[in-house]
Amino acid sequence: MVRPRSAVKRDWPEEVALLCDRGLAEAALVPLAREARRRAIPLGRLLLQRGLVSSDAYYCAFAEVCGVPFLCRGSFRARHDPAFPPPPAFAGPLPIGRTARGETVVAVAPPAGGTAAFLDLLRRFPDLRARVRITTPEALAEAVAIADPGARLSLLRPEVSARRLLTPGQMATGVALLLALLLGMLLPLSVLLILVSLMVTVAGMALGGIRLLAGVGARESPRPGHVLANVDLPFYTVLVPLYREARVVEQLVESLAALDYPTARMEVLFLLEVEDRETRAVLLPLLHPHMRCIEVPEGSPRTKPRALAHGLELARGELVTVFDGEDRPEPAQLRLAASRFAELPDTVAALQAHLAVDHLSRNLFARQFLLEYAGLFDCLLPFLSAQGFPFPLGGTSNHFRREALEEVGGWDPYNVTEDADLAVRLCRAGYDLRMLGSTTFEEAPIGWRAWHGQRTRWLKGWLQTLLVAAREPHALVRDLRGTLLPILGLYVLAMVTTLAAHPVFVVFLLLYGLDAAPIPLAGTLTGDCIAVLAGVSVVLCYASMTVVTLRGAAMRRWPVRLLDLMVIPFYWLVQSLAFYAAVVDLLRRPHAWCKTEHGVAKRPAHGRPHT
């Protein structure tokens, strides 16, 4: 029932007067009301901003003044088409049910201070009163997120989602810095060039130093001291997102069926897009009793992490892992992961298995990819893990404690390198990551087009992760203090910075060393300083990559040819080309997923790698 005007105290809005009747101190309202008038904003909005009333209390009073029901958080569910997700800051109307006469009932979260406008709407359209419910913005966002798991993180925790590329504050800061640089307002050009070169070189030195230490101190990843018996194993969920993978599903199902884990304590969920009929037709006849095919509802963006978000909603396991379509995990991997989790403290949220390519190839990119994976997963990441340092997760064969995964919001459908993003969010929440002494064998991308598309997507996702982390500097500083996150941040930032500057340094060094092609800075102190810094950066980059490549290949027993090492400079240059493509793609299509085709390489039968 509408609140009578006679009950309104002073000139407060009606919902504020009702809050006063319920205990809100009028003395606190007087200065607040003056501020609201001065800033020309509603008093109710200011009350919520200052935290003087809760969102539930305010909107409950709002609903009572308007004479319509109030719905608290968790008391209703959304009924909307997931193919058309609501925009950010959605305020309704959101369909939530039907009346006895079959009319749609909607929930809305009106703007704070909009009581008069809402009452006027009800007077003009009296039939709305029976079909509208008032709720809080938080309850509305939660209802939408529950209805569409793929949108959950972006709606409930938009500050950590890559749905938005840049915040207004980031854009303003970027424009201001760019103008200052262009106008020479910060530093003289010579000093600026030296300073930028120094920063890039220091980042490269840090990254190169970590690689060199890893090459010297690399060791085998630990396995559990005691392997759990069947009766002690927790329930395990294996999530397998698939899209256009008909060529590899037969071998995939065979590999997953060979996992040494009791089928009564595990489930395998294949996550397929609705339109992918070809993969579904091949997969369904191959399924075992503990395997299910799950259709991911149509929606945007169509990415692997969106499929994983829907899979997590249906998962029953205490532990959760992810495999890709071309993966061939070692049979003992799940049992080893469960046993290792049982030995480690609850603060260890994820275990990353080793990834390795199981086929040889004469193709330059496939062979460099093979050696790169050996250096990364068999040398560098085990070293970081042994030191207790965080590291970027791989996109597959990462095993999670379900509780920790849900605490940080699960996968972000809008980040195209979901593994790096998830590693950062887990570390910011105070969790640790560790390597697992088990291997999953994969297929290397064959040819320039496949390699370039995949690497561009990876680097675009790293840029998204850095932009998201830099949104709230105060929160980032707070998280940096209590965790080892700076090491992971340095790794990602140094990699991006090095790839961005590497071709510039190489070209500068070539021109600087050729008397026949002088450059403007030749013979100057600025030019000499930049040449020294560029030389240190480039040499350390190539040397450190050579060391981890040799050590990783030796641990994997891969043969390394002299030609493989001679190609490393070229490989770094094409990685930089992929980085520049990633920047362009980030601006043009921030959430577009570049699909890597599998089933192209000639791989050994039954998951036995070539040696």
Secondary-structure blueprint of this entry?
Blueprint: H1 14-21, H2 26-39, H3 43-50, H4 55-66, E1 70-71, E2 94-98, E3 104-108, H5 115-124, E4 132-135, H6 137-147, H7 152-156, H8 168-182, H9 189-217, E5 236-242, H10 249-257, E6 266-273, H11 277-283, E7 291-296, H12 304-314, E8 319-322, E9 328-329, H13 333-343, E10 348-357, H14 364-386, E11 398-401, H15 402-407, H16 418-428, E12 432-442, H17 448-469, H18 473-482, H19 485-512, H20 525-556, H21 562-566, H22 568-588
Parallel strand pairs: 1-4, 3-4, 5-6, 5-8, 6-7, 10-12
Antiparallel strand pairs: 2-3, 8-11, 9-12, 10-11
Helix pairs in contact: 1-4, 9-14, 9-19, 9-20, 14-20, 16-17, 17-19, 17-22, 19-20, 19-22
Fold and architecture overview:
With 611 residues, the protein is an alpha/beta fold. It has helices at residues 14-21, 26-39, 43-50, 55-66, 115-124, 137-147, 152-156, 168-182, 189-217, 249-257, 277-283, 304-314, 333-343, 364-386, 402-407, 418-428, 448-469, 473-482, 485-512, 525-556, 562-566, 568-588, and strands at residues 70-71, 94-98, 104-108, 132-135, 236-242, 266-273, 291-296, 319-322, 328-329, 348-357, 398-401, 432-442. An eight-stranded mixed sheet has the order 7-6-5-8-11-10-12-9, with helices on both faces. α10 (249-257) links the parallel β5 (236-242) and β6. The chain is globular.
